[in-house]
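step 3/5: co-fold with adenosine-5'-triphosphate
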Amino acid sequence: MDNYYFHMDNLSVGYDKKALIHDICIGIKKGEIVTLIGPNGSGKSTILKSITRQLQIIGGKVYFDDRNLNSFSYKELSTRMAVVLTERMRPELMTCHDIVATGRYPYTGRLGILSREDEEKVEEAMRAVHAESLGSRDFNNISDGQRQRVLLARAICQEPDIIILDEPTSFLDIKHKLDLLSILRDMAKKKQITVIMSLHEIDLAQKIADKIICVKGDTISHFGKPEDIFEENMIKELYEINNGFFDPLFGSIELPKPDGEAKTFVICGNGTGIPIFRQLQKEHTPFIAGILYTNDVDYRLARLLASKVITEEPFMEISEEAFLKAQKAMESCERIICTAVPVGSCNKRLGELIDAAKKSGKAEFV
Ligand SMILES: Nc1ncnc2c1ncn2[C@@H]1O[C@H](COP(=O)(O)OP(=O)(O)OP(=O)(O)O)[C@@H](O)[C@H]1O
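step 4/5: write tokens
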């Protein structure tokens, strides 16, 4: 546990003295961003509640900055740990400014009177999350996304060493999601604040996290760097995906391919096929795509959505074998969609396929 700033040591968490997840052994370094992912109900919030002392732990220990978490007084913890959980707060008669200002209470005297410096920090935090205009609004009468931003502002002005957030992006629009993640990244990388959070958007987790914790069943199924976790089969197994795909390279989700016999052929490449594949997918039209180099961006999607893909090795001239396969498949199709794929010296036989499509009377140019 030497180098770890935050350490879960054989931790078991759960409810009513029954462990839901056990033997959690995870070490987190200062300034790292660690993200929990996993299916609904797998226990992400339970872990977060347990490591923030909102829920009694069932077994094991949590160490924070080399001290048992239980040895911190609440006051001490409130200057060092900021917590943004999903539970709805319904405070009586508090404006958004008042809520953010509570982040400064650990630093004020007993009367909770904010100094000029505290006020500045509150204003600064509200500006950081673009919530300045919400200051005088009743916290109970704002939108879910606005509430998430106000709670983040409260956590920011608390000036913690560690920030723990449960699904902080769930209600945010894309701009505010990007804002939130940039704020957290800056907090971690410029100020060395450690960030632990759960996220449902695994594409975002892949992009922001230094380490990923996969929660599944009664244990942590994997813990490691995103590049090791975001492997197609790993994500498929974690979420038991059998109704579509997740492409870890682009972080995109795809619906299942249309079933049935393919009667449409798409001649494409260099990204010209992607909009056509998506259109055919929406129409539930099964299709064959080719001839695609296996390093072509069209290939990444065609392999998930097409009934069949006729391929060639990257940077090679199109082989006779691939050409004949494509020709045969085109003959069996009723439509041949020809995109504006550029034809050069390597893929010149694609030009021959386009000519053949023209002659067949089945060609549709898009
Ligand atoms: N207060 C509670 N008492 C008993 N069981 C609970 C309690 N809160 C949650 N659970 C159960 O614990 C399990 C884990 O729930 P938890 O909220 O930690 O999952 P999660 O991974 O955060 O889910 P989600 O992705 O849906 O937010 C679930 O089966 C849930 O029903």
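step 5/5: annotate
The pocket of adenosine-5'-triphosphate is lined by residues 15, 20, 38, 40-46 (CB under 6 Å).
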